């Protein structure tokens, strides 16, 4: 008998061998030699994780119990692969173009990247896979037991459970080493896939060897074995039609939905060529796996003592005939089946758990964005390792709870029904654009609830969760809620019962909720992309389009970077790749460089989308489009901000220019004034000096002459005084030192006074006709009347001096509004030129070369006075002649003093 | 004349090839339906122990259907692969699948 140590050594050696295979595969993948790793044969063999220890041991058990029914489990997957053109091809294409990492990711991407949905699906998958992992533990434990070694495991307690525990620990460690050695963006695991392919060969070889041994060793070839089959207790066709059809459907559904199958079928797939080969090669593998199942079962039933466990015929049959080597090979086959399943399932589940449960929660708790790459990598890896351990330990817990008693195939089918609940949401999502998130959530939740209630919890055994009483009479005695006779329909096979109700209600919920709900925008776009994937994604051939593709890239780059820069970039890259000609190969490195260059001009998301479109690896996802829209929005906002700023700058510059012009004119005026004022001062001074000299020296002057000269001197002195008075007045007004003498008076009186004063001024120029409306002048104002009169006088004498009309006329109009009085002085002259208008109120401003004397202070004084009186004086630009408008309050606020 | 023939000949050739390719896709789609029908035939058989067929016959039938499906699938997919390669050689560019 093979000793425990020898068996353990064989196991460890086998595991070590797998490690080496995985390591070598990973190394060559890193060196870029993925060709042989990615061959269709390896892909097909990796699909064989469908055949787990359940298949390896359980199929024979199932055949011994129920006859040919076992084969239905292989018929479903065969149909799916033969019909790859329907669903699998589409799934693979979607998986590649949307960068799908797991089945939960697929579902959530389709339904608007809903993380809630992904979380639900992940939790359900963990639950659904748990029985399956328990199944693997059970089969490995049983196979150890067959060699009579379970008892050799030292320590107390139930030896079976202890074995299962150590197997679980071993598998967890094994998977952590295998599956989380590094993080790959595409979630592809070259090493694991290669190891699985090797295991696929081992288990097929083991089963075929046992089969050949049975048919040609223990029987006399095929005719003899067929006779023995017919003579055995499973000799006639007695399969329940419902189970035959149901299990075929179930296995097909599970083949698409099992997380581990999705991992190898979709995530690890490269292109259509793989699928074309697998479409016939994988059914062939399944055919070979099931070919000898019935012969082994029949011969086992025949030769082995009654009551021996048919699940273990594959092991016990060679062992009972003394072929230990064959038995060990068969043991390794079973071991391979179990390990490969657990490894891939744990990897697939841990990807889901870490991506859809741990990371969202961790990111929310810590509040950091996904930008901190190093830290997040560590968290992801830790999350995966922990979830692998968790998943395997859950399987162990299920094994312990269910007591490891029920037949292998029964447990496997429980798991199948569970994971198949995702099928309506998945197929609906890729074929029906109307499927919505609400529909998917309703479907998945309904399906899993029914499965948990009517199959999963009862499968743990009577009295573990549900009491026997509840099973037979329903919860709280409600008859139609009995877990295995829902709605009062009894006596159906429990598996079919759950399959029927869960799939039916699941699908109904999916359609009803999809129809009554309304999808969000991302959901609708994703839906269109998924359903019409073949219109959206480029042909797979463009992966290897070579130079033509580089030319496309160059054309695009020229448009964005400019011809010279683009050519320089391509040349530089070509040199670096040491390729002749100017066009580099479109290697990932080069694409990255190009993308970065383009990103500088058009933004990262746009660049990625553009390069992606030409390289054709991935179609543009909605997220890409949203990112593009976002970037454009930012660019637009930025440019509009720039526009505003530049408009503001232009405005400021204009103001500055205006101010500068004004300053220049003011400076010119000041110079003119200085010369004017010196002239004004000099003229009277020189005449005063001249006449006073005549008076001093001229003793012979007569009295008339003397008096004439003295009066000239007097007049000139008055002129000087007036000029100085004006200057003084202005300076007092400007420095706000003036004190106002506020009184009440009638405007008409003030105008009369002003008219008289202006008329009396002899050198005021030609007389002017003044038109007034005496009725309107009956307005009482409270203000400094003398100052106001001074303004009037100024305006009247200005009109006299400057109105150049043949028949000069001044019209004075008075109006009132809102407690303000407006007095307009409009003459019929030429008016003041536009360029001079803003200068007339400045000090020393005089228009053109003045004929009449005056220092140009009149209007400046007017403006200052009006400001003191809380009013203003403006030039009226709309009148024909020169027009001034005075505005002042009827009652001046005393506080203003 | 020769020019005309070439002009006229090429599109017809291409059209016929893409027509063949589409029919090949139809065949690929039809295959699982045939398989399903074939494998559901046992449902028609009686399970009455007196009239039920022998297990060996059932087994032979199921595996024969299986083998037939696999051979048909192999033929179709190898034809597809050949088309694919021919396409790449002559067109070089991309054309919409489906």
Overview of this structure, please?
Helices cover 68% and strands 5% of the residues of chain A. Chain A has five domains: 4-400, Up-down Bundle (Sodium/glucose cotransporter); 422-537, no CATH class; 538-620, no CATH class; 627-725, Helix Hairpins (Orthogonal Bundle); 738-896, 2-Layer Sandwich (Heat Shock Protein 90), CATH 3.30.565.10. Mean pLDDT of chain A is 79; it is low at 149-157, 369-374 and 538-548. Chain A is mainly alpha-helical and 897 residues long. Chain A is built from 34 helices and seven strands. In chain A, strand 4 and strand 5 (820-827) form a beta hairpin. A five-stranded mixed β-sheet of chain A has the order 2-4-5-7-6, covered by helices on one side. In chain A, strands 1-3 form a two-stranded antiparallel ribbon. Chain B has 98 residues and is an all-alpha fold. Chain B has one domain. In chain B, 77% of the residues lie in helices and 0% in strands. In chain B, helix 1 packs antiparallel against helix 2 (55-90). The longest helix of chain B has 39 residues, at 2-40. The radius of gyration of chain B is 22 Å and the shape is elongated. Classes of the chains: A mainly alpha (897), B mainly alpha (98). Chains A and B meet through helix 4, helix 10, helix 11 and helix 13 of A and helix 1 and helix 2 of B.
């Amino acid at each position: 008998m093979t000793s425990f140590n020898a068996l353990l050594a064989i196991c460890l050696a086998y595991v070590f061998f797998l490690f080496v295979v995985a390591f070598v595969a990973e190394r060559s993948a890193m060196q870029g030699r993925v060709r042989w790793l990615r061959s269709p044969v390896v892909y097909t063999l990796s699909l064989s994780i469908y055949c787990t220890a359940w298949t390896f041991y359980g199929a024979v058990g199932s055949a011994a119990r129920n006859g040919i029914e076992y084969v239905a489990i292989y018929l479903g997957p065969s149909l799916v692969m033969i019909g790859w053109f329907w669903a699998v091809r589409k799934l693979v294409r979607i998986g590649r173009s949307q960068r799908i990492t797991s089945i939960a990711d697929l579902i959530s991407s389709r339904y608007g990247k809903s993380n809630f949905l992904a979380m639900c699906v992940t939790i359900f998958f963990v639950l659904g896979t748990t029985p399956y992992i328990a199944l693997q533990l059970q089969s490995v434990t049983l196979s150890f037991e067959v060699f009579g070694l379970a008892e050799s495991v030292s320590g107390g307690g139930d030896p079976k459970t202890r074995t299962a525990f150590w197997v679980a620990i071993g598998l967890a460690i094994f998977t952590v080493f295998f599956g989380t050695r590094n993080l790959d963006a595409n979630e592809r695991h070259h090493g694991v896939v290669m190891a699985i392919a090797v295991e696929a060969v081992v288990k097929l070889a083991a089963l075929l060897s046992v089969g050949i041994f049975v048919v040609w060793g223990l029987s006399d070839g095929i005719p003899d074995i067929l006779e023995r089959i017919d003579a055995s207790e499973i000799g006639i066709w007695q399969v329940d039609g419902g189970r035959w059809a149901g299990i075929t459907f179930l296995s097909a559904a599970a083949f698409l939905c099992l997380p581990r199958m999705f991992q190898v079928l979709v995530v690890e797939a490269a292109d259509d060529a793989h699928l074309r080969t697998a479409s016939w090669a994988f059914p062939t593998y399944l055919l070979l796996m099931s070919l000898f199942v019935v012969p082994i079962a029949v011969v086992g039933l025949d030769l082995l003592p009654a009551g021996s466990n048919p699940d273990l015929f594959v092991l016990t049959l060679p062992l009972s005939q003394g072929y230990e080597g064959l038995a060990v090979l068969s043991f390794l086959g079973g071991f391979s089946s179990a390990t490969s399943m657990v490894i891939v399932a744990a990897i697939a589940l841990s990807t889901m758990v870490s991506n859809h449960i741990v990371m969202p929660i961790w990111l929310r708790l810590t509040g950091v964005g996904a930008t901190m790459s190093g830290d997040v990598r560590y968290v992801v890896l830790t999350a995966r390792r922990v979830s692998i351990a968790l998943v395997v330990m859950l399987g162990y817990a299920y094994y312990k709870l269910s007591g490891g008693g029920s037949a292998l195939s029964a447990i496997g089918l429980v798991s199948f029904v569970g994971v198949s609940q995702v099928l309506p949401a998945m197929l609906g999502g890729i074929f029906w654009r109307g499927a919505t998130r609400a529909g998917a959530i309703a479907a998945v939740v309904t399906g899993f609830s029914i499965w948990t209630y009517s199959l999963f919890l009862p499968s743990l055994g009577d009295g573990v969760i549900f009491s026997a009483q509840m099973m037979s009479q329903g919860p709280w005695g409600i008859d139609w809620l009995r877990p295995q006779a829902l709605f009062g329909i009894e006596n159906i096979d429990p598996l079919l019962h759950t399959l029927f109700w869960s799939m039916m209600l699941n699908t109904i919920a999916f359609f009803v909720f999809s129809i009554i709900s309304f999808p969000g925008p991302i959901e609708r776009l994703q839906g269109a992309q998924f359903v019409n994937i073949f219109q959206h994604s480029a042909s797979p051939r463009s992966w290897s389009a070579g130079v033509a593709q580089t030319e496309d890239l160059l054309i695009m780059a020229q448009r964005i970077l400019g011809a010279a820069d683009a050519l320089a970039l391509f040349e530089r890259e070509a040199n670096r790749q040491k390729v002749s000609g100017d066009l580099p190969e479109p290697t990932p490195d080069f694409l990255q460089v190009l993308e970065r260059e383009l990103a500088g001009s058009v933004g990262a998301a746009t660049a990625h989308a553009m390069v992606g479109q030409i390289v054709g690896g991935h179609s543009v996802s909605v997220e890409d489009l949203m990112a593009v829209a976002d970037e454009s929005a930012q660019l637009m906002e930025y440019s509009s901000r720039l526009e505003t700023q530049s408009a503001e700058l232009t405005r400021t510059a204009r103001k500055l220019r205006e101010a500068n012009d004004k300053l220049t004119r003011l400076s010119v005026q000041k110079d003119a004034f200085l010369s004017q004022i010196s002239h004004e001062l000099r003229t009277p001074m020189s005449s005063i000096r001249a006449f006073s000299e005549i008076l001093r020296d001229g003793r012979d002057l007569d009295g008339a002459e003397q008096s004439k000269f003295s009066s000239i001197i007097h007049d000139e002195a008055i002129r000087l005084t007036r000029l100085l008075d004006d200057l003084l007045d202005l300076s007092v007004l400007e420095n706000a030192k003036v004190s106002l003498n506020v009184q009440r008076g009638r405007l008409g009186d003030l105008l009369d006074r002003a008219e008289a004063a202006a008329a009396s001024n002899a050198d005021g120029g030609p007389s002017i006709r003044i038109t007034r409306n005496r009725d309107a002048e009956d307005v009482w104002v409270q203000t400094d009347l003398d100052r106001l009169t001074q303004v009037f006088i100024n305006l009247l004498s200005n009109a006299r001096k400057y109105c150049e009309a043949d028949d000069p006329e001044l019209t004075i109009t008075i109006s009132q509004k809102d407690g303000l009085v407006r007095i307009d002085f409009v003459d019929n002259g030429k008016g003041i030129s536009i360029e001079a208008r803003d200068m007339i109120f400045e000090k020393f401003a005089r228009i053109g070369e003045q004929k009449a004397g005056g220092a140009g202070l009149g209007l400046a004084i007017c403006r200052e006075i009006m400001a003191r009186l809380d009013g203003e004086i403006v030039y009226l630009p709309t009148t024909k002649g020169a027009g001034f408008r005075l505005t002042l309050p009827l009652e001046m606020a005393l506080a203003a003093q | 004349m020769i020019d005309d023939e070439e002009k006229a000949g090429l599109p017809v050739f291409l059209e016929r090839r893409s027509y063949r390719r589409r029919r090949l896709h139809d065949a690929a789609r039809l295959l699982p339906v045939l398989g399903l029908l074939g494998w559901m035939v046992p449902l028609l058989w009686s399970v009455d122990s007196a009239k039920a067929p022998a297990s060996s016959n059932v087994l032979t039938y199921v595996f024969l259907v299986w083998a037939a499906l696999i051979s048909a699938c192999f033929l179709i997919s190898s034809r597809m692969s050949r088309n694919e390669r021919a396409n790449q050689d002559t067109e070089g560019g991309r054309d919409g699948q489906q």
